[in-house]
Specification:
162 residues, alpha/beta, 5-stranded mixed beta sheet, 9 strands
């Protein structure tokens, strides 16, 4: 697929992991309801479950989250991209991944009534079975991961926030 047919989407906060289901739910976190709804209604909703690809490319204490899917309805390929610190939740997901994860959507709400934060989890869900955990040095295994490395800064340039 040509480079100009790819839309790189970074207007989400990051990802969260929810372990209450049989399979872990990987939640895309948004701080604006409109962005969340548009991401689902205009993009992800149209991806067949068996065409959704979730990639985690690690470098040092960070990982590059790359999510994309195929759709005959959408005219271009959308790729969700974010560089995140490798948290204990991510490491647990990686260790416990059993061949299936669910992609979900959540709205992040900062401190409300003495709670540090709240998540409003939406009922949007995709079953994802094409998940890869890569080292950035092996990024050529997936063309979108390779492209994301060329387009976004190296995790080495991020400072640890704790």
């Amino acid at each position: 697929m040509e480079e100009d047919t790819v839309t790189w989407y970074t207007a989400f906060l990051g990802v969260a992991y929810r372990y209450w289901d049989v399979h872990t739910q990987v939640l895309l976190l948004f701080n604006k309801r409109r962005d969340l709804l548009n991401s689902w209604n205009k993009v992800v909703k149209w991806w067949p479950d068996d065409e959704v690809k979730m990639r985690f490319a690690e470098a040092n204490n960070y990982y590059r989250f790359v999510l994309y899917g195929e759709s005959h309805i959408l005219e271009n390929k959308w790729v969700f991209l974010k560089i995140l610190k490798a948290s204990e939740y991510y490491k647990r997901f990686k260790d416990e991944y059993d061949g299936t994860a669910y992609l979900g959507f959540a709205l992040y709400k900062p401190e409300i009534n003495d709670e540090p934060y709240q998540l409003e989890v939406f009922n949007y869900r995709k079953k994802v079975t094409d998940v890869l955990f890569l080292e950035e040095t092996n990024a050529e295994q997936d063309s979108m991961v390779s492209r994301s490395i060329r387009l976004s800064p190296s995790p080495d340039r991020f400072e640890s926030t704790g």
